[in-house]
From TrEMBL:
Pfam families: MAGE. SMART domains: MAGE. Residues 28-138 form the MAGE domain. GO terms for cellular component: nucleus. This is NSE3 protein. It comes from the Eukaryota. PROSITE patterns: MAGE. Residues 1-17 have a biased composition (Polar residues). It comes from Atlantisia rogersi. Gene3D superfamilies: MAGE homology domain, winged helix WH1 motif (1.10.10.1200). Residues 1-28 are annotated as: Disordered.
Length: 138
């Protein structure tokens, strides 16, 4: 319960900016990448993601800029993987990932029976490439 109350103390925009200015940009980008990886693993296991877990396991020492890092990770997930980071419980700050890709409807469905399998494989491959610093050998 104490941890939940500390999570609700949202830093102001100027506090976040000061926190970002104190850290090297590549350090913040590294934390964004680590958070994306963490979120993908949690989503693969179908485990709801708690902000408290994010702060404890991925962003210790980054509480002042955690919301900005979470926002950037959400943007990366959307742009790279077509996944949207959705806060499903605003009191306890619990997130899930949902697909933001449009579903194919109508007659095209029976011609694309293996599309979900291909999409799943594509997401795994893209995740691997992303986690390896945006490049992977054959």
């Amino acid at each position: 319960e104490e941890e939940d109350s500390s999570l609700s103390q949202t830093p102001t925009r100027s506090q976040v900016q000061r926190g970002l200015d104190r850290r090297p940009q590549d350090q913040v980008n590294q934390k964004v990448s680590e958070l994306v990886q963490f979120l993908l693993v949690k989503d693969q296991k179908k485990i709801p993601i708690k902000r408290a877990d994010i702060l404890k396991k991925v962003l210790p020492g980054y509480r002042d800029v955690s919301l900005e890092i979470i926002t950037r990770a959400g943007r990366t997930l959307e742009q790279v993987f077509g996944l949207q980071l959705v806060e499903i419980d605003t009191k306890h700050h619990i997130y899930i990932l949902t697909s933001s890709l449009t579903r194919v409807q109508g007659d095209n469905l029976h011609h694309r029976d293996n599309q979900p399998a291909k999409l799943g494989l594509l997401i795994v491959i893209l995740s691997f490439i992303f986690m390896k610093g945006n490049s992977a050998k054959d």
